[in-house]
Amino acid sequence: MCRLRAELIRDRNVLYRELPGGMIESVYMLKITNMDNEPHRYEMTVLDNDVVEFDFSRPLELEAEEVPTFPCAFACRPRQAAGLKTSSYASRL
């Protein structure tokens, strides 16, 4: 069984930014701990989502016991962002 720990940390300096085309983007740091003695490759998706676009351009390939931090961005249209909370969406690794 693959053992890992994941933390999604919001950048406290930038709440959001506007993108070309009218999208709003929030950037987070994803800290993943591979708690196994073997290397693993992970794929991340956002579940039950029809509003937020997720861009994770770098593959999650971790060596044994590695603890890297990856930037990841979530974007949506301004009207769709009203009332959204990051804790509202589940993710799957």
Quick gist of this model?
The protein is mostly beta strands and about 90 residues long. The protein has one helix at about 80; strands at about 5-10, 15-20, 25-35, 40, 45, 55, 60, 70-75, 90. It is elongated and about 45 Å long.
Task: Describe, in plain words, how this protein is organized in 3D.
The structure is a single chain. The protein has 93 residues and is mainly β. Helices cover 4% and strands 44% of the residues. It has one helix at 78-81, and strands spanning 4-10, 17-18, 24-34, 40-42, 45-46, 53-55, 60-62, 69-76, 91-92. β2 (17-18) and β3 form a beta hairpin. The two termini are 14 Å apart.
Largest sheet: 5 strands, antiparallel
Q: Over all CA atoms, what is the radius of gyration? A: 14 Å
Order of helices and strands: EEEEEEEEHE
Head-to-tail CA distance between termini? 14 Å
Q: Name the helicity range.
A: under 10%
List the helices and strands and how they pair.
Elements: E1 4-10, E2 17-18, E3 24-34, E4 40-42, E5 45-46, E6 53-55, E7 60-62, E8 69-76, H1 78-81, E9 91-92
Antiparallel strand pairs: 1-3, 2-3, 3-8, 4-7, 5-9, 6-8
